[in-house]
Write a structure and sequence with these properties.
The structure holds two protein chains of two kinds. By secondary structure, chain A is mainly β. The termini of chain A are far apart. In chain A, strands 2, 4, 5, 9, 10 and 11 form a six-stranded mixed β-sheet that branches. Chain A is built from no helices and eleven strands. In chain B, the strands form two sheets. In chain B, strands 2, 4, 5, 6, 9, 10 and 11 form a seven-stranded mixed β-sheet that branches. In chain B, a hairpin with a 2-residue loop joins strand 7 and strand 8. The chains are: A mainly beta, B mainly beta. The interface between A and B is medium-sized, with 21 and 24 residues.
């Protein structure tokens, strides 16, 4: 099956710092999304980004499909950014059948 | 965005009993829904694909007879954990999608005692 690897596994930042989270995947995908899981377990969509670059406020993401990786950038981090960030990919006929990476746990300190 | 609602949010049950978890798409129809399981400090693992009007498709290693899935309407899928044991304690979460973006329910935290 497809392998989805995220790095780093843990990240501690001071408020205001910038960070880059990486997602590598082992096969061609037809869907890639980034999610933030809050402390209560809720998964929040950040980006639908099977290719290209998108920006939403302090967050941006880039996927280079030909090289099988995606990056999530967080700028001017805030304590509310803390939580676990997951990359998830789908492949083949089923566009929304996701396989998740191992996640990056982010802790932003005041 | 679209709304996927899951119920209950948490449940405690005795070992050997069965528990039913509901996943509803509130503002769109979903012929396909997905069920995931997440153990503490781990990632989400796909358990099965719930297909409206037909049998669910299970991932390798997931026991079909333990995790019964019923997708009886275009807005409701249910996951029943049968004869639950403490090792079934986990966070169960469903997803559905009106288009290419997936939306997840709030999750159900199951504790089997």
């Amino acid at each position: 099956g497809i392998q989805v690897e995220q790095s780093p596994p843990d990240l501690i930042l001071q408020e205001g710092a910038n960070s880059t989270l990486r997602c590598n995947f082992s096969d061609s995908v037809n869907n890639l999304q980034w999610f933030h899981q809050n402390p209560w377990g809720q998964l929040i969509n950040l980006f639908y980004i099977p290719s290209g670059t998108k920006q939403n406020g302090r967050l941006s993401a880039t996927t280079v499909a030909t090289e099988r990786y995606s990056l999530l950038y967080i700028s001017s981090s805030q304590t509310t950014d803390s939580g676990v960030y997951f990359c998830a990919v789908a492949l083949g006929d089923n566009f929304n059948k996701f396989y998740f990476g191992s996640g990056t746990k982010l802790n932003v300190k005041p | 965005g679209a709304v996927v609602s899951q119920h209950p949010s948490w449940v405690i049950c005795k070992s050997g009993t069965s528990v039913k978890i509901e996943c509803r798409s509130l503002d769109f129809q979903a012929t396909t829904m997905f069920w995931y399981r997440q153990f503490p400090k781990q990632s989400l693992m796909l358990m099965a694909t719930s297909n409206e009007g037909s049998k669910a498709t299970y991932e390798q290693g997931v026991e079909k007879d333990k995790f019964l899935i019923n997708h009886a309407s275009l807005t409701l899928s249910t996951l029943t954990v049968t004869s639950a044991h403490p090792e079934d304690s986990s966070f169960y979460i469903c997803s559905a999608s009106p288009m290419e973006i997936a939306f997840f329910g709030q999750g159900t935290r199951l504790t089997v005692v």
